[in-house]
Amino acid sequence: MQEVRVITPATVANVVCGFDCLGFALSDPFDEMLVRRTAEPGIRITHNDEFNLTTDPRQNMAGVVAAAMLERADVDFGVEIEITKHIMPGSGIGSSSASAVGTAVGMNRLLDDRFSQLELVDLALEGETLASGSRHADNVAPGVYGGFTLVRSVDPVDIVGLEHPPLWATIIHPQVEVKTAEARSILPAQVPLKTAIRQWSNVGSLVAGLAAGDYGLISRSMEDLIVEPVRRPLIPHLDEIRSASVAAGSLGGGISGSGPSMFMLSETEVTARSVEKAMHSVYRQTGIKYKTYVSAVCRDGARVLDAA
Ligand code: HSE
After folding, report:
1. SS (H, E, C) 138-182
2. Looking at the predicted structure, is the pLDDT value of residue 181 above 90?
3. Is the pLDDT of residue 257 over 80?
4. In this structure, is the dihedral angle defined by the CA atoms of residues 165, 257, 202 and 148, taken in order, positive or negative?
5. Bond from prior residue into 174 cis (ω within 30 degrees of 0)
6. Average pLDDT, the chain
7. SS3 30
8. 295: which of 28, 82, 217, 274 fits an S-S bond (Cβ 3.0–4.6 Å)?
9. Can you give the pLDDT at residue 131?
């Protein structure tokens, strides 16, 4: 195997109540990556996009993951990684973890699939940790497994793939900057027990609602008493977006990862598109530049398109 082409999905982390543990994969947008084996050792990175991300392999998530994999596999070849990013960096839909996951999946094929999905999450986490300054796998896990995932633990890595009914996500990305490290630095260090009880009850019932295909329970469970109250001021018009989306038929939603994107879930594509219109009607008046996406929750994680 000399060259592998991979597509790797955007992901939504937290899913309102599941801070750092729940996430799901989207069909759109996605990044494209080409991972090529080279005879001379070393890692070279190129970007075919307009985002001016670093190509220094020690600073770029893809480089960090590739280096970890070459070392763990104990091989002496090098790699070239070409990244075509469609997931905007800093959008809150897993742009950095997509680079990490795509590299892990592409490199794994070059290495004859020697690493399991669980090991790929662990390897991709090395890149994600560089990007956000903390070790959390709620974007990386759905990027590798697809669908909805629950991160039971990152040390050791333990991932649960969740059953779920058909679901559609509508995403709005306001073009304002929210740095993950900053959005984490404002979080409370401690939580009252009463609040924690309500939060973990919601996580449990969201997982149960997904497994049973109970859209009502999914809807009721998307409530966050811990993270959203402190991050709300960073996300322009979150409450208006949610009210307008629910009025258009959405099951509910909230901040995607650490923001600034917001996501709303719906049972069908038709509703998800009505939700998109409702989002436009809120944001058109704000003067803030934004982008929207409508996407099925994708059952696939990053996948090899072709390998030669
Ligand atoms: N769970 C993370 C957070 C996702 O909300 O900070 C962003 O990386």
Report:
1. CCHHHHHHCCEEEEEEECCEEEEEECCCCCEEEEEEECCCCCHHH
2. no
3. yes
4. positive
5. no
6. 95
7. strand
8. 28
9. 74
**What does the alpha-carbon distance between residue 223 and residue 251 come to, in Å, rounded to a whole number?**
11
The reply to whether the predicted model has a pTM over 0.85 is yes
Among candidate residues 128, 228, 267, 276, the one labeled active-site is: 128
- CA 38 to each of CA 63, 254, 281: distance values in angstroms, whole numbers, following the listed order: 14, 44, 51
CA 179 to ligand 1 center in whole angstroms: 10
Residue nearest to atom 4 of ligand 1 (CA): 257
Rounded CA gap, 227 and 232, in Å? 8
Tens digits of residue pLDDT in 39-53: 999 999 999 988 888
Judge whether 267 counts as a catalytic residue: no
**Ligand 1 geometric centre to CA of 14 (Å):** 7
SS (H, E, C) 230-258: HHHHHCCCHHHHHHHHHHCCCCEEEECCC
Considering 103, 180, 267, 271, which one is annotated as catalytic? 180
Ligand 1 atom with the shortest distance to the CA of 97: 8
Minimal-distance CA residue to ligand 1 atom 1: 20
Phi, psi of 12 (to 5 degrees): -110, 120
Q: Which two tokens stand for residue 231?
A: 């991050």
User: What digits encode the pLDDT tens for the residues 209-255?
Assistant: 999 999 999 999 999 999 999 999 999 999 999 999 999 999 999 99
180 part of the active site: yes
Q: pLDDT digit string (tens) for 158-173? A: 999 999 999 999 999 9
Residue 275 is predicted with a pLDDT of 98
- Do 165 and 24 touch, CB atoms closer than 8 A? no
